[in-house]
Specification:
By secondary structure, the protein is of the alpha/beta class. 44% of the residues lie in helices and 20% in strands. The strands form two sheets. It has a four-stranded mixed β-sheet with strand order 1-2-4-3, with helices on one face. Strands 5-7-6 form a three-stranded mixed β-sheet, with helices on one face.
């Protein structure tokens, strides 16, 4: 549902979405400078406006950033691009998983390639590794980091100190790479 709010004498258009799965309120500033507020189903709409006002400095900075820097986004590709590049992504990911797992020697079940909107990768409790096909559009350094990150979740299914120690064994400068990855919008 499209809504408007006035913040710092500026009119801000935003899209309000309800989610049964959401546990907390979330604000997304997209690479096209549009804003989305995701509300858990049990929270009232008036809370969205309050939350937007609280986060207004951050929101306005992000909007300005995306208006100036349009080169950090992965283009919005459709299902055709996914179907065309899924196998290419699978081959690349499988090769890298096998290569980096020679070091870690973790057990995993399967590798899935998906067309995800919000994640580069994930690891399930069952040991399944999931990766976004759009990895094929990233630099080698970012892809390697994402693969290693998900591999390490096979041992530590969290972001604890032990997890980051595992990551740092192959990616000692992971903090800098994470910052770079945050600039790339899915």
């Amino acid at each position: 549902m499209n809504k408007k709010i006035k913040i710092d004498n500026k009119e801000l258009n935003y899209n309000l979405k309800r989610s049964k799965r959401a546990k907390r309120v979330r604000i997304v500033v997209n690479c096209d400078a549009s804003v989305t507020v995701v509300l858990p189903s049990m929270i009232g709409e008036n809370f969205a406006e309050k939350f937007l006002r609280e986060k207004s400095d951050w929101i306005l900075k992000k909007i300005e950033y995306f208006k100036k820097n349009k080169n950090f986004s992965i283009k919005k590709f459709g299902k055709k691009d996914y179907l065309k590049n899924k196998e290419k992504a699978r081959l690349m990911v499988r090769e890298k998983v096998d290569y980096f797992n020679e070091f870690y020697d973790f057990k995993f079940n399967k590798i899935a390639i998906r067309n995800q909107k919000t994640r580069w990768g994930s690891c399930s409790k069952k040991g399944n590794l999931n990766f976004n096909y759009k990895l094929i559009y990233l630099s080698k350094k970012l892809v390697n980091y994402i693969i290693i990150h998900e591999l390490c979740h096979l041992k530590e299914l969290n972001h604890s100190e032990k997890f980051w120690k595992l990551v740092s064994e192959l990616v000692p400068h992971y903090k800098e790479i994470r910052k770079e990855l945050r600039k790339v919008i899915l």
